[in-house]
Amino acid sequence: MWLGSQAGAGIAAAAVVGTGAVAFLLLLLLSLVAKQLLRQRRPLGFPPGPARLPLIGNIHSLASEQPHVYMKRQSERHGQIFSLDLGGISAIVLNGYDAVKECLVQQSDIFADRPPLPLFKKLTKMGGLLNSRYGRGWTEHRKLAVTSFRIFGYGQKSFECKISEESVVFLEAIDTYKGKPFDLKHLITSAVSNITNLIIFGERFTYEDTEFQHMIEIFSENIELAASAAAFLYNAFPWIGAFPFGKHQQLFKNAAEVYTFLLHLIQRASQNRKPQSPRHFIDAYLDEMGRNKNDPESTFSTENLIFSVGEIMIAGTETTTNVLRWAVLFMALYPNIQGQVHKEIDLVVGPNKTPCLEEKCKMPYTEAVIHEILRFCNIVPLGIFHATSKDTVVRGYSIPEGTTVITNLYSVHFDEKYWSNPEVFWPERFLDSSGQFVKREAFVPFSLGKRHCLGEQLARMEMFLFFTSLLQRFHLHFPSALIPDLKPKLGMTLQPHPYLICAERRC
Ligand code: HEM
């Protein structure tokens, strides 16, 4: 009887504890939901935007179609500057040339920050260069990178020869396929990454270096994952990082592997280094670290060196590679355009001489084709997210400090105020009536303002030299007129789906 009553009391106590635990969990959940709903309140005077769902805001819409296309469509309804709710993260989207210029150029200081989103914080601690906040860290790293690009890259006359030498290796590798169908992606990636490698490490890697190729592949997978719905969800609810499965875990795993590999490459490149006699970016960075070693505020560190090297490498490789992959695809798709490029190359360069940058001004049609590929294909359709560093007002809207800013560069390149029939691929839009190349104001593939692409000059050299060398030697066509899917594969960058090409020697 006594035992029985004791057991009963135990059960009752367990029931009370159980109910208490459930009540506690419910309360916790309710307070989390309430906190999230509060975060989702639209700031006063903020631009309007599409309807939002509780908790996730507009994240679901970004996952349902190509985000840049969705945003352009929304701008037709809500205006060139509208807002999005990324699950409690307030964002504005800038659409069309006028809006992008008004913010990135006319208020360049205020719009030069990067948002401290949980994913970027986790991957780069907002250090390095590309993801760095707008402040001393960014200024120091950008200055060093610009100087290094000049000294070890395009500032030297011999650098053009190095790109040409890489072109020779690239063309020889293509030749081994003897006109049979193959996927060019690997060869273009290797050739393009080697140009950046020369500046960063002072050496190139062979096309058979599987370790290096693997690192580029997983890094590039992260560029794709960083724009996925999983990444947006992680930014809104970083606690999902505790789940041991999901795309965010793949992102973290890849990032850790890349970090270790880069550290190894940096150690290898800095062997036999003579302080104050830099041979490449890494030496220059280590010199800078040495000079600042007694400054506790200095932002130069081994960790930031690794982040900067990774960012410059991937920013340089992923973009230029995709431009050239689209260029090959469009040349095969439009044989008449390819024919005109062939004609210009034959006329200006001839069949045997190596193409050089000096000839660029005599090749307006080739220049126009490269520009139209950059406009039409929108390699970085939403740029890299910016953030406001102060409260500001644009077109009468109040934009608080810390707002995430999305620059819809795709919408600039399809802005009907500046481009007629933007949905048509038409290189002639970059030519005047006498066939001379003309610059177009609303051409912004490298973005605008303080954070504009640091590698623009290098990318322009590479695109021209690789593209003209390729077309000087080869005629490009799809195997048995098999036209590949033209829809881009989505990610931070837009790339074509894998496709096969036949490269037949012209001479
Ligand atoms: C056709 C090729 C390229 C395109 C279309 C491109 C495009 C862009 C765009 C749109 C941005 C974002 C700018 C912003 O935040 O507003 C950017 C930033 C950047 N790009 Fe490029 N890029 C290309 C090639 C390169 C190359 C070759 C390098 C270096 C090797 C490079 C390094 C960078 C870096 C470091 C940033 C970050 C700048 C900063 O935050 O201050 N890019 N690029």
TrEMBL record:
<dbReference type="InterPro" id="IPR050182">
    <property type="entry name" value="Cytochrome_P450_fam2"/>
</dbReference>
<keyword id="KW-0472">Membrane</keyword>
<keyword id="KW-0479">Metal-binding</keyword>
<keyword id="KW-0503">Monooxygenase</keyword>
<keyword id="KW-1133">Transmembrane helix</keyword>
<feature type="transmembrane region" description="Helical">
    <location>
        <begin position="12"/>
        <end position="34"/>
    </location>
</feature>
<comment type="similarity">
    <text>Belongs to the cytochrome P450 family.</text>
</comment>
<keyword id="KW-0812">Transmembrane</keyword>
<dbReference type="InterPro" id="IPR002401">
    <property type="entry name" value="Cyt_P450_E_grp-I"/>
</dbReference>
<keyword id="KW-0349">Heme</keyword>
<protein>
    <submittedName>
        <fullName>Vitamin D 25-hydroxylase</fullName>
    </submittedName>
</protein>
<keyword id="KW-0408">Iron</keyword>
<keyword id="KW-0560">Oxidoreductase</keyword>
<dbReference type="Pfam" id="PF00067">
    <property type="entry name" value="p450"/>
</dbReference>
<dbReference type="InterPro" id="IPR001128">
    <property type="entry name" value="Cyt_P450"/>
</dbReference>
<dbReference type="InterPro" id="IPR017972">
    <property type="entry name" value="Cyt_P450_CS"/>
</dbReference>
<dbReference type="InterPro" id="IPR036396">
    <property type="entry name" value="Cyt_P450_sf"/>
</dbReference>
